[in-house]
Amino acid sequence: MIIKKLIYLFCVLISFYSREKSEDTPSNLNTDFNQKILDGYFVTTIAFDNQGNAWIGTFKQGIIKYDSKGITVYNSANSIIPDTSVVYDIAVDSKDNVWIG
């Protein structure tokens, strides 16, 4: 239940952030977070580490790490995560170890 609340809060915050407009940025460049980052991914869970990185689990699409530099997708091409895996839960411990289930 708390995961769903965190996902909702994360999406709301990103939505507000992505809708901010500066005077020197054309409005057509201001796109929604889902279109920019998560387009085409079926998100199942999100966890945050102590550095503020988001670890996003997906349905048979690997794990996405979202940080200030952008995204990194971990899947069968660059990790031991098989393409058929569904990530039901992600947890980050106090030492920033990421646990997936």
Task: Give a short synopsis of this structure.
The protein is α+β, with helices and mostly antiparallel strands and 101 residues long. It is built from 2 helices and 6 strands; from the N terminus they run H-H-E-E-E-E-E-E.
What does this structure look like?
By secondary structure, this protein is of the alpha+beta class. It has a domain at 39-101. It contains 2 helices and 6 strands, in the order H-H-E-E-E-E-E-E. It has helices at residues 2-19, 33-36, and strands at residues 43-48, 54-58, 63-67, 70-74, 90-92, 98-100. The strands form 2 sheets. The protein has a 4-stranded antiparallel beta sheet with strand order 1-2-3-4. A two-stranded antiparallel ribbon has the order 5-6. Strand 1 (43-48) and strand 2 form a beta hairpin. It is globular, with a radius of gyration of 15 Å. The chain starts with a helix and ends with a strand. The relative contact order is 0.15. The model is unreliable at 20-35 (pLDDT under 50).
Assembly state? single chain
Which strand order do you get reading across the main beta sheet?
Answer: 1-2-3-4
| Mean model confidence by pLDDT | 76
Helix/sheet category: alpha+beta
Question: N-to-C terminal Cα separation, in Å?
Answer: 16 Å
Shape: globular
